[in-house]
Amino acid sequence: MLSERKAKIPVTINEIILENFMSYEHARIPIKPGLNIICGPNGAGKSSILIAISVVLGQAYTERSRKLSDLIRHGKDIARATLMFDNKPRNGKRPIPFFKSDTFMLSRYLRKDGSYWYEADYREIDKSQVTRIFRDFGINPDNMLIIMHQNMVEEFSIISPQEKLKMVEEAVGFQDYRRRILEAEEKLSGLISEEESTLKALEGAEQTLNYWRDIYEKSLLRKELIAKRGFLEREAIWAQIIRQERIIASLKERLKNKTNTLENIISRIDQTKEFVKNSYEKLTFQQMEQRKLYYSLLELEKAITEIQVTERVLSQLNAEPVGKLAEKVKNFDDNKKQIEDKISKTQIGLGKLEKEIISSLEKYVNYRVNEAILSFRKKNIEDEIDDINREIKDGEKRLDELAPLMEKAGERIETERNLMEIDAEIKIVDARIQSLGAIPEEAEEMYNAYSKTFNELKEKASIVSENRKRASSELEERKEVWRKVLQKLIDEVNPSYQSILSKMNASGSVRLNDLEDLETAGLELLVSFRGGMPSVLDAYTQSGGERTVSIMAFLLSLQQHIMSPFRAVDEFDVHMDPRNREAIFKVLVSTIKESKDVQYLMITPSQIAVTEHDVHVIVVQNVQGKSEAKVVKEFAKKQS
Question: What is the DSSP letter of 72?
């Protein structure tokens, strides 16, 4: 190709989905790479498909001609137009790398209330993002050389040569050449203006410099005193900061000591809590053992009471026990002695355990008291720590308030002097400055500034002059490059344009005008029918059919150079007779075959004999007020 355009993986539309869009209630319309023909009677809804594509791609044409809300199907509140793009990786890269799915879905929603928005894979995006996505592919739906809507064939014939040239430049990817020229012109204009203002400023700076040079000598001493005063002011600021830093450091040391004390108390509290827990558990255990002994003593006393009652009964009988009764009486005596021994031991054990319980209770109470005392101390120290933290926070806040002064004070000055001492010295310096008399404080500053300004302006005048010369040369170089690439483009387009016209018994050429001036430079189509002299194509000289043939011939001759992988034309055959229509169609099919990775959409109300096996034909009909699209000739996949 003519331009050094960046290679880009082409993007392909797989399907168009329309929901409540114009005459469509719901339609899924597949399209293929190569040539897609949409045909059908007038009013069937063919052009609606191209309008939908343009609306999704962000075209401003439709928005200027009618409100987007008018595109919503009658009786509906919302419409959606969706394009499904093939985003499968090719050589490891996706056409639209920002989205990681194999199919990229872009929708535009239209509401009756006038709100419109975009969605990319179900996520809302704005129009600038849509423009950015397709800009690198060269897809600009506002350029009629890329998408030519109904009646645009006629419109192209009446736009100015300048606009035609700009459209061609954008379509083939040459807009950067024009942009660079405009940038160079703007740069040159700025340099010329800068040179004039620099020379004028240089003259004024020299006069002012002479005035301030006379005052400068008197200001040297004052400068020294002012510098000393500035140092003293900085020292005063640092004296305040250092004092505040020392206060904070002292508080932090106190905080550290209190924190250590608190940690120690917390440790002792944890230890005391463990003692409390252990003593409580021991006391509880001892109390349980005491109850057990009490219950044992009660049982023993009950047993001895039973023996005593039995003995009393036997004594009242006044009878000598014999046999088994005598043996039982003897056993009572033995048991009584054993029980009395157990009672004695149990009472001794109870007494001992009671002393232990009293001792354990005393320890438990002491531990609880210690715990309470330590908790009280902990609370006091925590309060003290909170107070210190507040003081530190207040101190740091005051230090932060000094931060603007610290920045103003510059490099740190270590001083042991207090603010009063420094202020006294500042007053002495002020008195010495006043004793020098009325000398403008800005004398040295102004002298140095104007001296510097004068030298800078002198150097700048030289630099600007050289820059202006280089910018002028650069502008001419960019214009020359622009002219060459455009002329080379036209040299390549012309034979194809003439060849296509010859098939319609016509002749002509494409020419560039006024390339010396970017603003007046334009492109014109010359055409002749029936052997006449070629004349400029316009809205008055040629008939409607002749204009259509000429523009389609130019559009087809330009196809090999257009960047956009998607192109479309609506009613390309308007005003054409059957012979020219068939001839243009054959050239169109041949051109698309030669254009690799191009997707072309052609809309026609006419009947065209499709003999090519790789042409995708879609028929649109309006059935009971609803448009329907049907594929009647599938794209035949070629075997590799």
Answer: B
Low-confidence ranges of the chain (pLDDT < 70): 1-8, 60-66, 317-333, 441, 608-613, 633-640
User: CA 524, 527, 533, 539 torsion: positive or negative?
Assistant: negative
What letter represents residue 36's amino acid? N
3-class state of residue 126 by DSSP: coil
- Phi, psi of 160, deg, nearest 5: -70, 155
3-state helix, strand, coil in the chain (%, to 5): 60, 15, 25
Q: What is the CA radius of gyration of the chain?
A: 52
How many residues would you count in the chain?
A: 640
Distances from the Cα of 488 to the Cαs of 500, 551, 586, in angstroms? 19, 20, 26
Backbone torsion region of residue 9, taken as left when φ is above 0, otherwise alpha when ψ lies between -120 and 50, otherwise beta: beta
What was the pLDDT predicted at 66?
63
Taking only the tens place, the pLDDT of each residue in 567-582 is 998 887 777 777 877 8
What is the layout of strands, in order, in the sheet containing 34-39?
A: 147-148, 566-570, 599-604, 34-39, 615-623, 626-633
CB 70 within 8 A of CB 78: no
pLDDT, tens digit, for every residue of 187-203?
999 989 988 888 888 88
d(CA 201, CA 187): 20
Please give the single-letter amino acid code of residue 392.
I
Q: Which residues contact 284 (CB under 8 A, 6 or more apart)?
A: none
Q: How far apart are the first and last CA of the chain?
A: 26
d(CA 136, CA 138): 5
> Rounded to an integer, what distance in angstroms lies between the CA atom of residue 360 and that of residue 278?
10
Phi, psi of 376 (to 5 degrees): -65, -45
Please give the Cα distance from 565 to 570 (Å, whole number). Answer: 17
Cβ contact 417:238 at 8 Å: no
Task: Return the H-helix or E-strand segment holding 100.
Answer: none
Q: Which helix (H) or strand (E) holds 603?
A: strand 599-604
Contact status, residue 553 vs residue 504, Cβ threshold 8 Å: yes
- Fill in the DSSP letter of residue 90: B
Helices (H) and strands (E) in the chain, counts: 12, 15
CA 79 from chain center: how many Å?
29
**Residue 608 CB: number of other CB atoms within 10 A?**
20
204 sits in which H/E element: helix 175-317
Report which DSSP code applies to 30: E
Is the whole model's pTM more than 0.70, yes or no? Answer: no
Residue 252 to residues 244, 401, 406: CA-CA distances in angstroms?
Answer: 12, 19, 22
